[in-house]
Amino acid sequence: MGDDFYRELWSVIASGKSFEAIFLNRKKNGSLFSEEKVITPLRDAAGRITHYVSAGRDVTFRLEAERRLRELACYDDLTKLHNRASFFDSLDALLSASSERCQGVTLVLIDLDRFKGINDALGHDIGDQVLVKVAARLAGAVRGSDIVARLGGDEFTIALAGPLTEGDREALLQRISDQVEAPIVLPGMTLYVGASMGVSRFPDDGGDSKALFKQADISLYEAKREGRGRTKHYSPTLKRNAERYHQIYQAIRRAFSAGELWVAYQPMFDLRNGQAVGAEALVRWNSRTLGPVPPTEFLPVVHDLGLGGKLTDFVLERACQDLARTRAELARPFSVSVNMPADELHAHGLSGKLEALLARAGLPAGALKIEITEGALVAQDDGSTAALESLTRAGVDIYIDDFGTGYSNLGYLGHIPLASLKIARQLIAGIRQGASAGKIVRAILHLASALGVGVIAEGVETREELRFLEAEGCQYAQGFALARPMPIGELLHFLKTSGAGEGGAG
Ligand code: C2E
Ligand code: CA
Ligand code: CA
């Protein structure tokens, strides 16, 4: 209560009116309290002020409650950061100030990775402590002019104000993700979370807070979808990808039941006699709404939807039926290989399932091959070896797909049952471009022969590549130079008319 306050008090009551205000007073025990007080002047018969009556009551609790309510309306109770509503108010204000000053604003949406796991496994108390720590770090990572808020759950947002060079912005974003990723030490435990971030910029990506937020949200979604711990910046391409993903996501479920999926076969040839000895089964999708969609586009969506196993089952089933028919019509051995993601290798009872499939189609086990990419194999643990061994025991051969692109440590080859290597398309394509790819292909051929495993060159597109492979003693090849993937009817026709014995590669 300053001098002005008392001057005002005296001037009001001296003029004969009552004065009403909240006073900060001290209790007898020394503690402060807020008193709501009315001071009223009393006059005598002549109208002179003779006394003042003061009536007051302690309103400390009411004031505190009001303050808390105001705070709750603006701040997140747990982390003390801005809440969603107050963030948007502040962002609107920042945007209009920035546009007057012709300055940009960068909006960052942050979603914690692995937070749900912490909440589920360790309980909400621990989860809350993690959120509080992360919030404090985020607030500490940015500048005073920036706005940090918790939008709810494990979602945070930061508006970076003012002119920022590209380098400044990247440094700030890096600092933010470093802060989230640093170990979180709580009593008796150390926890790790990561951050996925979506970034949009004012005014380039959106002219108001709503648009800006939407673009950052699209970017965040893409960052999460591509894996954790990523930062994605909004761009029209990113938006198109997101829309395409969404369309595929909506359409793919129906693809299974509506019979829109089918299997194409690309023959593989024995280069010594030109005979087609087998074919790779390649899934195809003719969407009623989107037209043909390549597998590289829709397989990740299938995976995200948890339909990977269903897709593999579909291809396996079709491939076995088509293979039985092909072998019957050709009256000679022929094999089919089916692509399988590494995580499905671990599916319980896979070898039993394959044995049953083969038996139903009346096929010998050796007629079916499973293709697993090198990268996926290496990324898996020892369980892969066990899974591969059980396939091999069931008589199903393994092809290591895209060999030469997955990993530089070949030690794993010694630990898995013998398999054929499919030399990656990228390496084969390199043959016509430069000497070093040719040397690598030659080295792989030597390696395979030392290990006693077969080799198939894939993605062979030119005569020149074919000649090189033949000269180097590569026995099997597959690629557009020999035959493209085709429907089963065409495959049967191709196999019958291409001599089925000699000159198939022609
Ligand atoms: P991948 O297993 O490496 O399959 C070979 C891909 O290379 C096929 O593309 C094939 O059409 C293409 N190709 C064959 N010869 C040539 C060539 O000479 N030049 C070029 N540039 N490309 C050639 P596709 O069918 O689009 O499949 C792409 C990828 O999608 C496959 O790569 C495989 O990883 C995956 N995929 C395809 N079908 C299935 C399936 O049924 N199940 C699973 N899990 N994955 C599949
Ligand atoms: Ca393959
Ligand atoms: Ca391949």
Automatic annotation (TrEMBL):
This is EAL domain-containing protein. InterPro entries: Biofilm_reg_signaling, EAL_dom, EAL_sf, GGDEF_dom, Nucleotide_cyclase, PAS-assoc_C, PAS-like_dom_sf, Rev_trsase/Diguanyl_cyclase. Residues 245-499 form the EAL domain. CDD domains: EAL, GGDEF. Pfam families: EAL (PF00563), GGDEF (PF00990). Residues 17-71 form the PAC domain. Residues 103-236 form the GGDEF domain.
